[in-house]
Amino acid sequence: MTIFILIVVIFVLGYTAIALEHPLKVDKAASALMIGVLCWTVYVLSADLILGLGFSPNWQAGAHGIDSVHFVGHELEHHLIEISHIIFFLLGAMTIVEIVDQHEGFRVITDRIKTTNKVKLLWILSFITFFMSAALDNLTTTIVMVALLRKLIDDKHTRWFYASMVVLAANAGGAWSPIGDVTTIMLWIGGQVTTINIITRVIIPSLFTMIIPLILLTFTMKGHVTRPKSQCVEHEALTTPKEQIFILSLGVLALLFVPVYKTITHLPPYMGMLFGLSILWLTTEIMHRKKTDECKRRLSVMAIIRKIDTPTILFFLGILTAVAALQSAGHLFLLAGYLDEHLGNIFLIDLAIGLLSAIVDNVPLVAGAMGMYPIATDAMVQSAANPEYMAMFMQDGLFWEFLAYCAGTGGSILIIGSAAGVAAMGLEKIDFIWYLRRISLLALLGYLSGAAVYYVQSFWLHN
After folding, report:
1. Quick check: 180 and 138 in contact, CB under 8 A?
2. pLDDT at 66 over 90
3. How far, in Å, CA of 214 to CA of 123, rounded?
4. Residue 107: per-residue pLDDT
5. Coil, helix or strand for 91?
6. Backbone conformation region of residue 382, classed left if phi is above 0, alpha if psi is from -120 to 50, else beta
7. Which of 18, 38, 1 is nearest to 426 (CA)?
8. pLDDT-based confidence at 60, cuts 50/70/90?
9. DSSP state of 376
10. DSSP symbol at 203
11. Distance CA 170, CA 128 (A)
């Protein structure tokens, strides 16, 4: 049991190092990679002891005929496949955004946002993010919006604040869309929720999650943002306005095509993202083939790829690998069981999962909930001791819809609690403690407000 607890201690210490990145002056990617490797190392070296405790759901489910060490290796490979989906998706999205940015495609948008008033700009960007996140997904939208913010805001800390609010809006927008957040996608594919119901029943609570912080900030924010000094003189010689519009349109279409590709082929989303990148790559190669060597060098995808923030990719790899160890060894399974036993109320369970998703990745938490609670059928409801409670676990039941909301928006409470937050943290080097002091309370108020709206809405619909 001591070794089992040691893995949690390693994770907590590493998480603390990530949170204290700036005071320690140690890049968070290094800490994330360290805990990812150490958690699995301790796990495999003590595989017999840890698996013998009986907490690993996969081991208990029937890993017969295989020794514990090979089981752990197999588990790592399985989780690496899932992690690689996110990594390649992120690489493709970041590259597409960088291509559009290098071609000055975002000027088409930024030139139309004339206001420098902080409050007006915050409302405009938040609503753009909210609906864009539902159409794309919260991770891709955050990457796009951070690129836009760099064109709109010069001051670093002001840009941090807007990037943080983008994370909040992106997570809120992704929660109510079947393709907006990875956890909602999981529930949608798993059959727990259906398209129309998840949209109509979760969009209003999600909207309140964003609007409540915006209303509070409306009364506290003052002044105007400072735009960055224009650096488009050299770029105007590289791309024409028509080329800028074309590349922006093609980039957006490539991103929008990802969910379409997934629906048609049933292949992972990263395949659609890489396909979109390949189209954009081929198009730019042909577009610039007759231009000067200097122009081609600046606009080539090969040169643009070198600008991708590799530490952010490695940070994702490390933190997701560490969480995978907790899931495989059974820590998250125990946590889910504890919530079920001590809370026993679907609203409290989902609220707790949402709060925990600010600390631990929401994907394994939702996966754990999906594994613990099967979709209830009519026969299960009729034969249950408490039919009304069991009905909440049917397709489009309250438990699943509220889980989509909580898991999708709860991660905003901490910068590290969602893929969108991690991306913004990596791209803008946002300090964990800074976010905790200035954004976390706003995000928590929004989260609880949206949850209250959903509770009232569900009570009204079912009575």
Report:
1. yes
2. no
3. 7
4. 78
5. helix
6. alpha
7. 18
8. confident
9. B
10. H
11. 9
Burial of 116 (0-12, 13-18, 19+ CB in 10 A): middle
* Model pLDDT for residues 370-422, shown as the tens digit of each residue: 766 778 888 888 887 778 878 888 888 888 999 999 988 998 999 888 878 88
Between the alpha carbon of residue 28 and those of residues 90, 270, 312, 416, 435, the distances in Å are 18, 25, 9, 11, 15
Share of the chain above pLDDT 70, in %: 94
Hey, is 224 helix, strand or coil? strand
| Cα 155 to Cα 86: distance, rounded to the nearest angstrom | 31
Cα–Cα distance between 231 and 236 in angstroms, integer? Answer: 9
Residue environment code for 284-307, b if the CB has 16+ CB neighbours within 10 A, otherwise e: beebbeeeeeeebebbbbeebeee
Report the distance separating Cα 385 and Cα 403, nearest Å.
23
Quote the tokens at residue 73: 């290796």
Q: What is the pTM of this model?
A: 0.74
CA–CA–CA angle 220, 359, 426 (5° rounding): 70
13-22: long-range pairs with CB below 8 Å, 24+: 14/38, 14/322, 15/359, 15/416, 18/319, 18/416, 18/432, 19/416, 19/432, 19/433, 19/436, 20/432, 20/433, 21/431, 21/432, 22/431, 22/432, 22/433
* 253-276 tens-digit pLDDT: 988 888 788 778 888 888 988 999
DSSP string, 128-139: HHHHHHHHS-HH
Taken in order 351, 353, 355, 358, the sign of the CA dihedral is negative
Residues facing residue 394 across a β-bridge: 376
Q: Yes or no: say if 121 and 152 are a contact pair by the CB < 8 Å rule.
A: yes
Backbone angles phi, psi at 394, to 5 degrees: -75, 170
